[in-house]
């Protein structure tokens, strides 16, 4: 359980992150991680810890992309938030850390996929409203679509969780759908 409040985490995110797109990504991963806590975290999962992990995972990326996520990991450790710090460190796959907990594995499985699902929503007239896993899987095969998204991280994350890709995609869609307007994924037809 985190001692860090949501307000403190959000304030820190906003101090380091100014672009709307990265703030929306942080919020998207937060809402997906809230949903993932209930699905993958078991009875002991603290939803707030999972939410803050999603919210802060890229907090230092905009100002210090070459160091990412060192600054935010250090900031979290200074506050005694080792569980969150380790999960955020694990999501930087270049660091080669082993994901140990459901929180670590879920952030890996949710981060890239949340961004990819949002990209899928942005090219659909009705956004996330009728998006289905089948459409997302089809787009995953198209390497030219959202080319910066690392498909291997998505597949590895889902494998680490031991879940079906389609079911995990559905969890992400279901988590994002209630926040469509805020995240800008309600489509051009609504």
Question: How is this structure best summarized?
Answer:
The protein is built from 10 helices and no strands. It is mostly helical and 190 residues long.
> Uncertain runs with pLDDT below 50, 5 residues or more?
none
Mean pLDDT across every amino acid position:
94
Number of helices: 10
The number of E-state strands comes to: 0
Structure write-up:
The protein is mainly alpha-helical. The protein has a single domain, classed as Hypothetical protein af1432. The protein contains 10 helices and no strands. Helix 6 packs across helix 8 and helix 7 (133-141) crosses helix 9.
List keywords for this structure.
mainly alpha; Hypothetical protein af1432; 190 residues; 0% strand
Write the layout of secondary structure elements.
Blueprint: H1 6-16, H2 20-40, H3 47-56, H4 70-78, H5 82-90, H6 102-122, H7 133-141, H8 151-161, H9 165-176, H10 180-183
Helix pairs in contact: 1-3, 2-3, 2-6, 2-9, 3-5, 4-5, 5-6, 6-8, 6-9, 7-9
């Amino acid at each position: 359980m985190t001692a860090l409040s949501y307000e403190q985490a959000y304030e820190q995110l906003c101090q380091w992150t100014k672009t709307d797109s990265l703030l929306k990504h942080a919020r998207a991963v937060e809402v997906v991680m809230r949903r993932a806590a209930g699905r993958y975290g078991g009875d002991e999962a603290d939803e707030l810890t999972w939410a803050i992990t999603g919210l802060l995972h890229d907090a230092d990326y905009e100002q210090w992309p070459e160091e990412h996520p060192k600054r935010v990991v250090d900031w979290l450790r200074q506050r005694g938030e080792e569980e969150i710090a380790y999960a955020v460190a694990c999501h930087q796959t270049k660091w080669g850390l082993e994901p140990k907990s459901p929180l670590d594995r879920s952030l890996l499985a949710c981060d890239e996929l949340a961004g990819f699902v949002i990209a899928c929503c942005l090219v659909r007239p009705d956004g996330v409203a009728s998006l289905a896993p089948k459409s997302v899987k089809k787009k995953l095969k198209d390497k030219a679509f959202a080319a910066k998204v690392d498909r291997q991280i998505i597949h590895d994350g889902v494998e680490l969780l031991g879940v079906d890709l389609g079911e995990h995609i559905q969890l992400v869609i279901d988590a994002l759908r209630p926040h469509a307007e805020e995240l800008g994924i309600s489509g051009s037809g609504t």
